[in-house]
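=== Given protein ===
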Amino acid sequence: MKKALKKGTGNKGLILYVILCLSFANLLATGYLVFQSRKQPAAPLEPAKAPLPAGLDTRAGRAALFDKLKLLLNAKDYDRLYLLFDETVRVQFPKDKFTKNVEDIYSITGEILSGAYRSYDVRTEPGGVKKYDMRYPIDTEKGKAVMLITVFQQGQEAYRLVGIKISKEN
């Protein structure tokens, strides 16, 4: 009977030894992972973007807007182009000033040959208005450029065109 107790006690010692070794190994592994995570800063989480407004939330919708603007710019139909813009823009930019700005852009880029939607940024303006800047790399008669089309949306209202900017690529 004494031998049975000694064997049982020996097993308890072995089990205790294994548990201590595993705990120590776990502690070392945890310390290593903590140390490694401090070496590499975590990438900041990007907030989820608000989806594009209805009518621009599909490839066809974005292409239709671009094609309409391209057609009017290339045709130099500044009257119809002016009417596409939101009323608040038309109040701030009289038609003659708008036409002068568009003519200046055309003199720099020439005719727009092609383009395709690439990406967008969105931010919320005061009053809850969402401002969307959509990027379209374009090919023009005078080289490559980027067209930035800006629209506003208030709540669930339809989007409003408020800006076009064309920047030449270097």
